[in-house]
Amino acid sequence: MPSRKFADGEVVMGRWPGSVLYYEVQVTSYDDVAHLYTVKYKDGTELALKESDIRSQSSFKHRKSQSSSSSPSRRSSSRSRSRSPGRPARGRRRSASQSREHKDDKKKTIQETSLALLVLVLFKPSENNTKRYNGEPESTEKNDTSCVILEQKLKPDLEVKRVLEQYSLRSRKDDKKKEEIYSEKKTFVAVKPIEKVPTKTKELEFGGRIGTFMMVFLLPATVLYLLLMCKQDDPSLLNFPPLPALESLWEGRVFGVFLLWFFLQAVFHLLPVGKVVEGLPLSNGRKLQYRINGLYAFILTAAAIGVLLYFQFELHYLYDHFLQFAVSAAVFSLALSIYLYVRSLKAPEEELAPGGNSGYFIYDFFTGHELNPRIGSFDLKYFCELRPGLIGWVVINLAMLLAEMKIHNLSVPSLSMILVNSFQLLYVVDALWNEEAILTTMDITHDGFGFMLAFGDLVWVPFVYSLQAFYLVGHPTTISWPVAAAITVLNCIGYYIFRSANSQKNNFRRNPADPKLANLKFIPTATGKGLLVTGWWGFVRHPNYLGDIIMALAWSLPCGFNHILPYFYVIYFICLLVHREARDEHHCKQKYGLAWERYCQRVPYRIFPYIY
């Protein structure tokens, strides 16, 4: 096995991928398997480079002293005017072949220098013009080591080029031919995309292999426990429900209804209605296309439910077999997860998820090995994110409302049930109305599609998020109109924060140059993206999480305070968002480096202002 040349912590010159420019970097680690160095640039950007793309600083200093040993004016004035241009100076005669080689080397150097200038313009890591819209000066946090070296090399080489052109003995025809060939080469290099070297996932989340293994069993068990608790007359935490018989948890007809629901939503998703948009660039620069028609699917679903109710179909069948539907969804999500992992084993390296490529089966199975698994143009992860589970959540809530009216002989639903259904319906419709915004979320851009998202989308969302409505069927709660009004105001505040913060972020990501966003200030990063420091994102680092938590509390309050069970959702949601915030912090610090540290100094609070 070859030994490494550069040590950890050593300051060297690293070539920027896709260019001929070298920047001052620090070696942070070395991968013995892939033979790649992880280096850190001055702006905090971390990349994996081959040993051939790294040079010691001394080699650049030596080159600098050679190129600047004499000025172009001194070299030109030392030449005798009486001497033939084809003859070298006395004492320095060389053969014709040596002279030609010397000239070719010089021309090669000039070509490389010109090419470096071209690549400098095209491929130099961009940095947002931070204050362009605010009338403030641009940020000067740039790594200019290679620019200094290039400038020092450029002056003498341009002088050599002028002399060679002036005294060249080759025909103009040959020169023109060479220029055309070189022009083609230069054009080819200019359009060549930057290649990123895929790396294994080194930092494991969710407790690593042991944690993910336990969660594969813990998540279904939690859903089963919550639903059994809601069925009890006394759903206290200490009153553990008896375990049902295994045969009572499964029914073929229920599983058939679930499959029918899943494939009906798939048909709605494939309908050629709605606009087609591009997602964010992948690691290889490619952009996937997505059809935005979630709202159309919701309207078609509502029409289908209306037809069923018109023909007096008993929708409370969902309530009567709720536990069996949850088990059917869990079995389907497990089968889907196995299929996703098996197919990911044949996926190209560049299509694997950055967070699910650890090489450990259970970890990659849980987090998702492939980033965007598709069957043709049908994106499985994108479909499951918003369709079967999210729309199914609304249908389940409606079934609980009808079940409450039937069981308690009510002519109209209770005020508590109306509030829960209305708040959560608004949330789902908002998500479908702003469907395009999900393309910028962590679930789509970073997380693979494995058991975590498959179970979360198809089981956790519809059967745990509807816990308040399910609870109210067996435990009716009466609230007054003033209390209902106060809860409604709280939900509206949470929704306003959630929606306005997400709109600011999504609009800025899509088009930072939009004149409507001219009042927003931001910190530039080496990736070319900006970090907002005004509006909601200057208030706390994750204002959308704050709005989400306020809404979650408003959904639980109509259930009263007799039991903590209906507040499981808000407690879980706080834990989820705090954990997700920690993941975001870790990824952003790696991605944005010093710019993220500046942002954290500017916006010190994470989710809760003046608290956390």
Automatic annotation (TrEMBL):
Biased composition annotated in UniProt, kind: Basic residues: 76-95
GO molecular-function terms, A-Z: Delta14-sterol reductase activity; DNA binding
Chain positions covered by the region annotation Disordered: 53-109
Enzyme kind, highest EC tier: oxidoreductase
Compartment(s) where it occurs, according to its Swiss-Prot or TrEMBL record: Cytoplasm; Endoplasmic reticulum membrane; Nucleus inner membrane
Protein name: Delta(14)-sterol reductase LBR
Keyword Cell division among record annotations: no
Tudor domain boundaries: 4-62
Biased amino acid composition, Low complexity: 66-75
UniProt cross-references to InterPro entries, sorted A to Z: ERG24_DHCR-like, Lamin-B_rcpt_of_tudor, Sterol_reductase_CS, Tudor
Gene3D superfamilies named among the record's database cross-references: 1.20.120.1630, 2.30.30.140
CC annotations in GO: endoplasmic reticulum membrane; nuclear inner membrane
Protein family: Belongs to the ERG4/ERG24 family.
PROSITE patterns: STEROL_REDUCT_1 (PS01017), STEROL_REDUCT_2 (PS01018)
Bilayer topology term: Multi-pass membrane protein
Catalytic function, reaction form: 4,4-dimethyl-8,14-cholestadien-3beta-ol + NADPH + H(+) = 4,4-dimethyl-5alpha-cholest-8-en-3beta-ol + NADP(+); 5alpha-cholest-8,14-dien-3beta-ol + NADPH + H(+) = 5alpha-cholest-8-en-3beta-ol + NADP(+); 4,4-dimethyl-5alpha-cholesta-8,24-dien-3beta-ol + NADP(+) = 4,4-dimethyl-5alpha-cholesta-8,14,24-trien-3beta-ol + NADPH + H(+)
Domain of life assignment: Eukaryota
Annotated TM spans: 210-228, 248-271, 292-311, 323-342, 453-473, 479-498, 519-540, 560-579
Pfam families the record matches: ERG4_ERG24 (PF01222), LBR_tudor (PF09465)
Bias kind Basic and acidic residues: ranges: 99-109
Enzyme Commission code: 1.3.1.70
Main location: cytoplasm
Alphabetized UniProt keyword annotations: Cholesterol biosynthesis, Cholesterol metabolism, Cytoplasm, DNA-binding, Endoplasmic reticulum, Lipid biosynthesis, Lipid metabolism, Membrane, Nucleus, Oxidoreductase, Phosphoprotein, Receptor, Steroid biosynthesis, Steroid metabolism, Sterol biosynthesis, Sterol metabolism, Transmembrane, Transmembrane helix
Pathway(s) served: Steroid biosynthesis; cholesterol biosynthesis
An annotated GO BP: cholesterol biosynthetic process
